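Quick start: read one record
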Amino acid sequence: MKGVFVTGTDTGVGKTIISSGIAAVLKEKKIDVGVFKPLLSGISRHDPESDTSLLKTMSQTTLSIQDITPFEFEKPLAPFVAGKLEGKVIRIEEVLQHWDTIRRKHEFFIVEGAGGISVPLGKNFLVSDLIKALKLPMIIVARPNLGTINHTYLTVKYASSLGLKIAGIVINGLSEHPDLSEETNPEMIEQLCGIPILGITPRLTNLTNESITRMVREHIDLKSLLNQMIIE
C-alpha cells in the first residue's frame, strides 16, 4: 500500500489543511488518492465544517463519510477520553478492520491521526500504535513559532524510537511578517532532527478549497515525497 500518515506535534497545527491540500494536488497529478481519518472528536463527521468533509471534498474520493471516519465522538477531547464518556471504547482491531475494507479502493492513501503522535485513540493504543500497524511513512505537521523546536524534536525522537519512518516535516502557518523564531526555527529543526523539511506553508487568512490547494502546490515539495513512495 502506497500512502502517508499525517500526524502533528500538537492539536490545531493544521493536519487536515495539509492532508486535504496534498490530496487535492495529488488528484491534479492524476494519482488515485483516498483519505482515512478513522476517529473524529468534537464535531459530526457529516458537518460541512468537519475534517472528514474537507478531506472527502478535496480528495474527490468516492468513499462515503462513514468509510473515511468510522468512529466519531461528541466531546472535543482525545478520542479515547471522549469515547469513554459515551460508553464507546474503540480497539485498534476495529480500526484496522475498517481499514481493510477500504485500503484497496485507491492506489494511494492519506491517513490522518488525531492531535499528536501520543494521543490515546482507544483501549491500549495511541496514534503511534496505529501508524505502526498501518506501516505507512509519516509526515509531521509542526507550527512555526517559539516552542516548536522542542515539540518537533520530541515527536521525531519518539517516532524514531519506535522504528517509524518519517517522510518529512511540514511547518505550517508561517506569519505574513515572521518574527525571529519563525525565521530561525526551520534550519534548527532540520539540523537537530535530521529529517527533511518538505515545506513551510503560510498562514491562510481566507480558507477556501482553492487557497489550500494552491498553498500546497506552491509551498510543499510533493515531488520529493512521491519519490520516496516510488511514484513517478
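The first strand starts at residue 2 and ends at 8.
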